[in-house]
Amino acid sequence: MSIELIVLDVDGTMTDSRITYSANGDEIKSFNVKDGLAITSWRKLGKQVAIITGRSSAIVARRAKELQIEHFYQGIENKKEVLESLLVKLGLTMENVAAIGDDLNDLQMLKVAKLSFVPRDASVYVEKIATVVLSKKGGDGAVREMIEYLISQEGLEKKYVELWD
After folding, report:
1. Average of per-residue pLDDT across 57-66
2. What is the pTM of this model?
3. Exposure of 56 by Cβ count < 10 A (0-12 exposed, 13-18 middle, 19+ buried)?
4. In this structure, what CATH number is given to the domain that contains residue 118?
5. Would the CA dihedral through 19, 142, 69, 79 be positive or negative?
6. Range of the domain at 50
């Protein structure tokens, strides 16, 4: 059974886990453009993307909109429950899910996904249960590395490259 849905945590996976505040209280985060291109490519292959994140942030909502990620959940305490509800809505099972996270609040979600990925700088406790420990750090191309791993595993390399050829 193929992976149809990737689930992304944000802080520590799509970003380097830093939150910077300006003098007037604005929140600043940096996202990796290479991750964004891979996410867009995954969607162009007819696959689904979800963001399930523990924090709430207008910046993350903006990034999700920019990448046209329609399954976007923030301020979530129990990521596993949200994932289970989403699967019912999409008619998928955990066998169709790959997830990436980096910390203890991702643990339960990562345990139930068919494939679980963690960036190189993830919590050691989360790393212990991961299917794949990526070579990249969060915010430094870890999401792209995960997607390209899946592209390879699913035999989609030719289609992936042809999207941009």
Report:
1. 96
2. 0.95
3. exposed
4. 3.40.50.1000
5. negative
6. 5-162
